[in-house]
Amino acid sequence: xxxxxxxxxxxxxxxxxxxxxxxxxxxxxxxxxxxxxxxxxxxxxxxxxxxxxxxxxxxxxxxxxxxxxxxxxxxxxxxxxxxxxxxxxxxxxxxxxxxxxxxxxxxxxxxxxxxxxxxxxxxxxxxxxxxxxxxxxxxxxxxxxxxxxxxxxxxxxxxxxxxxxxxxxxxxxxxxxxxxxxxxxxxxxxxxxxxxx
Length: 197
Prior knowledge:
The protein is mostly helical. Helices cover 68% and strands 0% of the residues. Helix 1 (8-21) packs parallel to helix 3 (68-81), helix 6 runs antiparallel to helix 8 and helix 8 packs parallel to helix 10.
């Protein structure tokens, strides 16, 4: 950025890096386990990094030349601006992922957009978005983890368990597998009444 001070793409990339790294202290618990964004202690987020990232993003956007880095930074900014998970602007996040799909088509981006869909319009519509990605993402453990979570929310516990088992089998590290197992335990507990109805 010092070399190319007026390059909005570099501003967007640096803003993205700052906004993502600002959450580093909250990403793991005392036992080294992954903490999901919605469960993170936001008091541990680095406010100075967030402020710098937001300022850089605003400066980049004034150039009116959007690119994938700026869009990803804008998504991270919406998470950073939410004081509590319930205040997250999921509708805007979905719109940004739709923009990102146009700029940089990818089944992983669509999978991420499905998270926003699930928050806005529920698990059934999110699952309808996720399922067609199967042929492209069958070897991607997050795909199966996401499917499992959505199926569980819909009360389809047996299918959810199968998806979770596939996610664990595909995990690249023991930490990833442990994370999926932890989510299985939590989701099974949370969704147990719905699954029995």
